[in-house]
Amino acid sequence: MTELAAAIAVVGAALAAAYGNQAVIVKTIESMTRQPELSNELRSTMFIGVALIEAMPIFAVLIALILVFVK
């Protein structure tokens, strides 16, 4: 049962991160088309946001590994 819970946690975190990254990138591209002069600033802010969003699945994998291997 622990392995199933760990797998569900990792899948949920991956799906949530994919949705979050999609939302951030879509809004950034939309903003770049509206204000092209801010493209560099928007791009760097987007990369920071994507990195923070990607931290969530990494933590989920770590917690899943702890759940599976530490008993």
UniProtKB/TrEMBL annotation:
Topology of the protein relative to the lipid bilayer: Multi-pass membrane protein
Protein name: ATP synthase subunit c
A single GO molecular function term of this UniProt record: proton-transporting ATP synthase activity, rotational mechanism
Stated family: Belongs to the ATPase C chain family.
Upper classification of the organism: Bacteria, Bacillati, Bacillota, Bacilli, Lactobacillales
Xref: SUPFAM superfamilies: F1F0 ATP synthase subunit C (SSF81333)
Transmembrane residue ranges: 44-70
PROSITE patterns recorded: ATPASE_C
Known function: F(1)F(0) ATP synthase produces ATP from ADP in the presence of a proton or sodium gradient. F-type ATPases consist of two structural domains, F(1) containing the extramembraneous catalytic core and F(0) containing the membrane proton channel, linked together by a central stalk and a peripheral stalk. During catalysis, ATP synthesis in the catalytic domain of F(1) is coupled via a rotary mechanism of the central stalk subunits to proton translocation. Key component of the F(0) channel; it plays a direct role in translocation across the membrane. A homomeric c-ring of between 10-14 subunits forms the central stalk rotor element with the F(1) delta and epsilon subunits.
Keyword terms: ATP synthesis, Cell membrane, CF(0), Hydrogen ion transport, Hydrolase, Ion transport, Lipid-binding, Membrane, Transmembrane, Transmembrane helix, Transport
GO cellular component entries: plasma membrane; proton-transporting ATP synthase complex; proton-transporting two-sector ATPase complex, proton-transporting domain
Native source species: Granulicatella adiacens ATCC 49175
Domain of life: Bacteria
Localization, UniProt: Cell membrane
Site, Reversibly protonated during proton transport: residue positions: 54
Ranges for domain V-ATPase proteolipid subunit C-like: 4-67
